[in-house]
Amino acid sequence: MQETRLDTARIRAARRVIDPIFLDTPLYRCEALEPALGCTVSIKLETANPVRSFKARGTEVVANLLADSGSRAAVCASAGNLGQALAWSGRGRGIDVTVVASRFATVTKLDRIRALGARLELVDGDHEMARERAAAIAQYDGIRLVEDSLDIETCEGAATIGLELMETAPAFDTVLIALGGGALATGVGHVVKTLAPEAEVICIQPLGAPAMTHSWRQRRVVTTDSTNTIADGVAGRYPIPAVLSDLLLVADDAVLVQESSIIAGMRLLLTHAGLVVEPSAALGIAAILEDPDRFAGRHVVTIVCGSNVDVDAYHRWVGAAPIHRS
Amino acid sequence: MQETRLDTARIRAARRVIDPIFLDTPLYRCEALEPALGCTVSIKLETANPVRSFKARGTEVVANLLADSGSRAAVCASAGNLGQALAWSGRGRGIDVTVVASRFATVTKLDRIRALGARLELVDGDHEMARERAAAIAQYDGIRLVEDSLDIETCEGAATIGLELMETAPAFDTVLIALGGGALATGVGHVVKTLAPEAEVICIQPLGAPAMTHSWRQRRVVTTDSTNTIADGVAGRYPIPAVLSDLLLVADDAVLVQESSIIAGMRLLLTHAGLVVEPSAALGIAAILEDPDRFAGRHVVTIVCGSNVDVDAYHRWVGAAPIHRS
Q: What are the residue boundaries of the Tryptophan synthase beta chain-like PALP domain, all occurrences included (chains A, B) (predicted)?
């Protein structure tokens, strides 16, 4: 394998600065899902932690470096999960965190960012506009801009999931990874391809937000004018060239799935695994549903990467009426 | 403290025979729950494993002993979670497992018991009738009867949760434990009272299944004629004297909660923690909701002990319409 920006020794070192509350997450076979999917399915569960997504693995690495260098402030753009995670990691280290998000972002994600003490700024546009605004704030205020997937620490943090996958027996055949900016896919993909090159790394994106997948297929950055998906966590339009370069080295395939499959995946995870997940976290199951022959008889690990949903929207998706809010 | 039937050294030894997939479960503070509850809340999550409850900690210890002694069969009565767990633990060790359950038990639990390869026998009565029938099978077939809470291995397995709680910092003030047969309460309670006697151990039972709580309060076995609760996992009528004796030594209080509070607890865990739980697993949150002043400002750990629910029933409880089943 050609060299990605990632380094396995640095990823092992990252584990030592991440709060253990985010590490060694559950990894277990979920047989109840298997009749519907036709393959052996293991779940790597990244939702049972204070921010309900894997993102804090990366922000812990970032915030640790910031604290070591005496930095007292940082800003990021976020669809919601990175913002929560950076707010959490910053708060514990006395770092003032500003999060820029789209005003169309998931409401509970925005509420949690505020509750964790971060300053939240909303832009009247999508995630790419939030990225521009965050960069402007960083320049104006002279503070660190945390750029998901571009900043190697975010990839290294996500890559620690890969190390945990490698520790398990029996080995799996395929890992299914939600593809957004690419930190999770390149991080986990790097570790898998380094330590178990025979395992297949498949990235999944919604048809409604296909920029990185198109880029991977064409081996050059392809942007889109808009996104249209409920999977808010992966809805970018401007792939980052350095991240694409890494993805080209570690991904065996990049797959696009329909919204209806994402919803069916969320429903299966609820019904047969008892898991509430956000749409991005159901992309792997959606990929199996769309192409069961491809996975038949294989042992597939899917990373359930987040559970931050608005409950009413969740019930709409899985087919139930709104509930009374407590 | 007077001596319970439990022994901390044996509990530490139990950890070594339990499949690691059931150990070191997530323990994390869930700040999003706190505004509604008025105290610091940490969750010990026992649902992210192949049987979606804590019960396999105990059945792993039981099945390990059975395998070591050359036993090839076992029978238990179960409301559903013990049966799944024993089926799982037995299957991996070549032990034929028979589970006796009420025909009114949660359907998904019964389905999972069958799917895990156990022989399932249903009785036309409640859990106490299932216990009688399981004992009769054991005697007739000359095989091991696994009795939840009476068999010390089931308590030792559950008690390993207590060891994990003790490893964490910062320390908690109170642990809230669902009370049914008593294995979880006496196991965890023993460890907490041995290693952190200043921490408060509070057991919670539904008003509709109060036998063990009444027994604890009157310091003698009190039975009831019936049960009436959605919390199927804790709905016993005949407390076991030896378990009550242990409970009297380790519990600081035993509390009864209303069904409406259990449902409100399930709804809070869904809305603010993204967790689907079975009713028994919401008993701790229900107790806080019923008496917030008691817990105000304290750090409370609640053990989320299981997530095996029928999804349609779950939606009825939390207030949403039935979903389309996949």
A: 23-306
Chain center to CA of A308: 12
Burial zone of A24 (CB within 10 Å; 0-12 exposed, 13-18 middle, 19+ buried): middle
CA–CA gap between residue B227 and residue B210 (Å, rounded): 8
Residue corresponding to tokens 């996992």? B233
User: What pLDDT tens digit does each residue of chain A (326 aa) get?
Assistant: 789 999 999 999 999 999 999 999 999 999 999 999 999 999 999 999 999 999 999 999 999 999 999 999 999 999 999 999 999 999 999 999 999 999 999 999 999 999 999 999 999 999 999 999 999 999 999 999 999 999 999 999 999 999 999 997 668 999 999 999 999 999 999 999 999 999 999 999 999 999 999 999 999 999 999 999 999 999 999 999 999 999 999 999 999 999 999 999 999 999 999 999 999 999 999 999 999 999 999 999 999 999 999 999 999 999 754 444 44
Which residues of chain A neighbour B321 with C-beta distances below 8 Å? 319-321
B8-53+152-318 and B56-146 agree in CATH topology: yes
Looking at the structure, give the CATH architecture of the domain made up of residues A56-146.
Answer: 3-Layer(aba) Sandwich (3.40)
Query: In chain B, what are the domain boundaries?
Result: 8-53+152-318, 56-146
Kindly report the backbone phi and psi dihedral angles of residue B286, in degrees, each rounded to the nearest multiple of 5, phi listed first.
Answer: -60, -40
The residue behind tokens 């409406």 is B260
Testing the interface with B: which of A52, A110, A261, A271 to mutate, by most B Cβ within 10 A?
A271
- Give the sheet arrangement for strand A96-102, strand by strand: A119-123, A96-102, A73-77, A144-146
**A320 in reach of chain B (CB within 8 A):** yes
Task: Report the alpha-carbon angle A191-A193-A194, nearest 5.
Answer: 65
Q: Is B294 on the interface with A (CB under 8 A)?
A: no
Burial B52-65 (b: 16+ CB within 10 A, else e): bbbbbbbbbbbbbe
CATH value of B8-53+152-318 in 3.40.50.790, 3.30.70.890, 3.40.50.2000, 3.40.50.1100: 3.40.50.1100
